[in-house]
Design goal:
Blueprint (H helix, E strand, L loop, with lengths): L1 H45 L7 E5 L6 H8 L12 H8 L5 E9 L3 E8 L2 E7 L2 E6 L19 E3 L5 H12 L2 H4 L2 E6 L8 E6 L4 E5 L3 H5 L2 H5 L8 E4 L5 E4 L6 E3 L8
Parallel strand pairs: 1-3, 4-6, 6-7, 9-10
Antiparallel strand pairs: 2-3, 4-5, 7-8, 8-9, 10-11, 11-12
């Protein structure tokens, strides 16, 4: 029995040697692959191939692709290994109209920049210039508009602060068909109400309101004017109730009802 075991063990020795040789070969191949991979990576990082070749910009409307690329600090001379994504994002978000930016590196040499811009809610008129007002309440003094979109309300006498922030929030709550019907909004504070505003509508009516309840009451504007004579213009007072005062010398005052089914 002992002799039989010794013979069996001797038979296994060549197989064990073969297994060890195969393992050694696999380790050698793995080391060679790692070695050559490191050489390729080092060579690539030091060669012109590692420089940014393509910069793709998505989501921009206000800023041109050229403006965003310049602001990012990236160029075709930038080594893709040296790009600091957080730093690039920070630079882009310094722009007044950029709400969010995302930078992704697509190997071997492409950079993709995705931006989300603040929306333009209205325009502020000062002298003969129109300045965009963003959804964060900021006035872009360095981007005076040449043309004003037809459906954008024009604001007067506002400045950055609580009243303008509230105005922006209220406009965002309004359905587009109502905000598009507003031509001008004047900030006309009173001693009794620092949030008083006066509106001039595209249909010729005027509206007296307070920012404290502006969107809540203005949403009923279509039902209010439906009760009025379209040929007799005047002021619709929404400060407390809902009243109409005609422009004629003999002032006509009429209480109008709000459609409770709207808004």
């Amino acid at each position: 029995m002992e002799k039989g075991k010794i013979v069996a063990l001797e038979d296994r020795i060549p197989k064990l040697k073969e297994q060890r040789r195969r393992k050694a070969n696999r380790r050698l191949v793995l080391l060679l692959i790692l070695f050559f991979t490191m050489i390729v990576v080092i060579a690539y990082s030091q060669s012109p191939l590692s420089q940014v070749k393509t910069i793709t910009i998505n989501g921009n409307e206000v800023y041109s692709a050229e403006e965003l690329i310049t602001q990012s600090g990236l160029s075709n001379k930038t080594n893709i290994w040296k790009i600091e994504v957080r730093n690039t994002v920070s630079k882009l978000q310094q722009l007044s109209e950029i709400k969010k930016a995302d930078v992704k590196i697509q190997w071997p040499n492409t950079v993709i920049i995705q931006v989300k811009e603040h929306r333009r809610i209205a325009y502020l008129k000062q002298e003969n210039k129109f300045f965009p007002i963003m959804d964060n309440g900021k006035i872009l003094k360095n981007r005076a508009a040449i043309k004003i979109p037809v459906n954008s309300p024009i604001l007067f006498d506002f400045k950055e602060g609580a009243a303008l922030n509230q105005m922006v929030k209220e406009l965002e709550k309004l359905p587009s068909e109502i905000s598009n019907s507003i031509s001008e909004i004047h900030y006309t504070p009173k001693k009794t109400d620092q949030y008083h505003i006066s509106l001039f509508m595209n249909d010729g009516f005027e509206v007296s309101a307070t920012l404290r309840s502006f969107s809540e009451k203005m949403v009923h504007y279509p039902s209010i004017i439906a009760q009025l004579d379209p040929n007799k213009k005047g002021i619709i007072d929404l400060e407390v109730g809902s009243y109409f005062k005609a422009f004629e010398t003999e002032v006509e005052e009429k209480e109008v009802e709000q459609d409770k089914g709207e808004g």
